[in-house]
Specification:
binds flavin-adenine dinucleotide, single chain, Butyryl-CoA Dehydrogenase, subunit A, domain 2, 4-stranded antiparallel beta sheet, Butyryl-Coa Dehydrogenase, subunit A, domain 1
Amino acid sequence: MTDALLAEHEIQLQEAARAFVAREITPNVAAWDRARRTPRELLARMGELGWLGTAFPEEVGGSGGGSVLYALLCAELARGSAGVALSMYVHTALACAAVHHLGTGEQRRRILPAALRGARIGCWAYAEPGAGSDVSSVRTRARKEGDGYELDGSKLYITNAPFADFAVLVASTAPDRGLKWLSLFVVELDRPGIAVGRPMEKLGMGVSEMAEIVLEGCRIPEADRLGPEGTGFIEAMKVLTLGRIAAAAFGVGLGRAAHETALTHARERVQFGAPLVRQQFVRFTLADMATRLEAAWQLTLHAARLADAGKSHGTEASMAKLFATETCTWACERALHLCGAQGYMLESAAQRFYRDCKVLEWGEGTSEIQRETIARALEG
Ligand SMILES: Cc1cc2nc3c(=O)[nH]c(=O)nc-3n(C[C@H](O)[C@H](O)[C@H](O)COP(=O)(O)OP(=O)(O)OC[C@H]3O[C@@H](n4cnc5c(N)ncnc54)[C@H](O)[C@@H]3O)c2cc1C
């Protein structure tokens, strides 16, 4: 699957990312997954290559690429390792993008150049034990204290937290009063009053570490608030569309990896005197996978191209995210099915794809939240 309409510089990045994946990721991904370890050094390497800054302008330390290039990068990385792609995208499309879109000039200068070089890594700390899809139930409190805030609460399931240097954190200045009191803060994780838990054990995404962040009487200066008090989170949701485009591209990349694995298996495995790929059911499944993944990719590229052209693209980003991540889950399940018992063994890539894929349907707003967003846009 190629896109004949990609520009020369887009093809160059795609090819460079493919070579990087083949050299640095593919030989190691199974071992990283078994060890439940994020290759932190790989994020630094991608920073040196300028890739972490792909979607950011040069004046903040980025490489001025844009959303299409970023989507290409996410898709290629996810093809090599969903966990590497998850860590990269949480750092860039969520933590760094929030600082870029909502931060003051001083905050951008303080945070972004080192973060986009990969010298410092960020995480996005929104979810809590009681707050998942329902944003208004965030209970982490930011109490105004003198010339700053005191933070209390806990953040759960936070990707990159075990090794991150800073967090973009959602907290409320009035926890019982709902959405309009939520603010964003960019918080150094070595501050007194912050404890990061041990890496949490999970079904998939073994290459991406996550942990709980507990805040107890953590004092931060007012200069660490991102955007206006009270409406910071709502503002963030309006501008952080890059995350949905990235999640969609991620789904396409992981789905393509699953498709390639199934295709290889179907060519090599002989049953009833012929390779599986000669069976009509198998051929049609592989054809359906390729078709749906291509449709997902075109939706993703469309949203990214609208974003790069400065046009409204929120609904298109939601459509791409919804379709690509559900297609990815379906493709990973079909790939495992076609690989049979061999795919079920822990040394097989098919079982890893199957374990990794599901989370894409939850992050950046679950499928149901995306459907609700699209339905609301249709109502006008
Ligand atoms: C591997 C992994 C990494 C993660 N990384 C991060 C991270 O870095 N930072 C972070 O903040 N969070 C992270 N999360 C958490 C993520 O933000 C949440 O999973 C997400 O917000 C959804 O919340 P939930 O899982 O609590 O599901 P819930 O909100 O409890 O939803 C459960 C189910 O109910 C459905 N549902 C909920 N409300 C409705 C409704 N109104 N209508 C219809 N259906 C509904 C949902 O679609 C879903 O299917 C991560 C999670 C995982 C598994």
